[in-house]
Design brief:
2 domains; alpha+beta; D-amino Acid Aminotransferase, Chain A, domain 1; about 375 residues; globular; OB fold (Dihydrolipoamide Acetyltransferase, E2P); single chain
Length: about 375
């Protein structure tokens, strides 16, 4: 008999024998191989850690003494949260990333990562001649050119065979698994599943080909367009448009925002594919994204009675607390990210106390091991983490 897993407001559960025979433990402190297959070992270990007696209380207590955000180098910034947002769920036992690929210090796959363009300081950068594309609110995915689609941190996606079989042999691809604008949480739920029929709704939006990384970007783009002609297939090449200057860039940014998009990406002309965060790739946004750990749930009131009203979260220091109460529909409030989960949230700026102002829930993350603050660009003081 196959196992059935589910989750309620407080914890995940499964009907398998291993789950049933551990009734001596609290529900939120139990796990099994089926949950680990769906959620990943790192997620389950973190969730159970925060289910230990006193764990939530300890996190909340130390969080009351907030400390100001520290200054960091921009290269410490987490990869784009939509994309990089880029990612999630992985089939069976976690497999190692391809041995032939470069790996970062945490064992993930080294991909080309973007730095942030400061719209307030136009004197530092002239975007004229750069290539503009929409910044997609999807899940970063790397095709190794052989047999596997990988998340940025080196976990394999359990994509169905008919999806994998249409990817090209001998050509590595870098792109995002994408369902649509403002649908990141929905996308992540599909791509971390093992047998979801909704994989057929996912498009693989390809924006580069690392196996030809020594060639200029324009040559790589032409090759991709020849490899995947404009058609109605699930593999699409992200469209690029040459920038005419700041007015053109800001016009495109406003156009994408009005459609519910996330922002823009800028590619330096003739640039090579670098396996690191690079000045040749810039992201353009009017808000910030970061990752936080859920430490408790606050119940809803009034219309939301019986549901979760907000998530109490901690920032990267695992101490500074804040609440995320918007960005959820009622279904998500009934089944929120569990305690210990990592979420992506979006916010405008920092308060004087160093916490996010107007944070909004974007989605649950299964491709990162801990919270990560954003990097804010500030006049006079340089960069500040948030």
């Amino acid at each position: 008999m196959s196992a059935t897993h589910s989750f309620d407001v407080d914890a995940y559960s499964c009907n398998c024998m291993a789950w049933t025979l551990t009734k001596g433990r609290p529900k939120e402190d139990r796990s099994c191989k089926h949950l680990r297959q769906v959620l990943g070992d790192e997620h389950e270990d973190a969730r159970r850690k925060y289910a230990e007696p006193g764990a939530q209380k300890r996190a909340i207590t130390v969080g009351r003494g907030r400390r100001p955000a520290r200054e960091v180098d921009e290269d410490d910034e987490l990869d784009d949260p939509f994309g990089d947002k880029e990612n999630f769920g992985m089939a069976g036992e976690q497999a190692p990333p391809p041995a032939k690929k470069k790996k970062d210090r945490k064992g993930g796959i080294e991909l080309l990562l973007a730095k942030k363009l400061d719209l307030a300081d136009k004197a530092k950068k002239d975007p004229t001649g750069w290539w503009i594309s929409e910044k997609l609110d999807g899940v970063r995915a790397y095709w190794d050119g052989e047999s596997q689609l990988w998340s940025r941190v080196g976990n394999p996606f359990s994509a169905p065979a008919d999806f994998i079989n249409k990817l090209p042999q001998g050509h590595e691809l870098d792109g995002e698994l994408f369902l649509g604008r403002d649908r990141f949480d929905e996308t992540s739920g599909i791509v971390r599943s093992m047998n979801s029929p909704r994989w057929s709704d996912i498009r693989y939006m390809v924006f580069d080909i690392p196996s030809k990384g020594s060639e200029p970007f324009e040559a790589r783009q032409r090759f991709l367009e020849e490899l995947f002609p404009r058609a109605k297939g699930f593999i699409r090449v992200v469209e690029q448009e040459k920038c005419d200057g700041w007015d053109h860039l800001e016009e495109k940014l406003e156009q994408v925002r009005s459609l519910g998009g996330e922002g823009l990406m800028l590619r330096q002309p003739k640039s090579k594919y670098e396996h690191k965060r690079s000045n040749t790739l810039l992201k353009v946004k009017t808000f910030h994204d970061a990752e936080a750990r859920v430490v408790s749930h606050e119940p809803g009131k009034g219309r939301l009675e019986g549901l979760v009203g907000s998530l109490v979260c901690v920032m990267e220091d695992e101490k500074t607390e804040f609440k995320v109460g918007s960005g959820f529909d009622d279904a998500r409030r009934a089944n929120p990210p569990p305690v210990g989960a990592i979420i992506t949230y979006r916010f405008q700026d920092l308060t004087k106390a160093g916490v996010p102002r107007f944070p909004t829930f974007v989605g649950e993350r299964f491709d990162v091991t801990g919270p990560k603050d954003a990097v804010l660009l500030e006049k006079n003081t340089g960069e500040q983490e948030a």
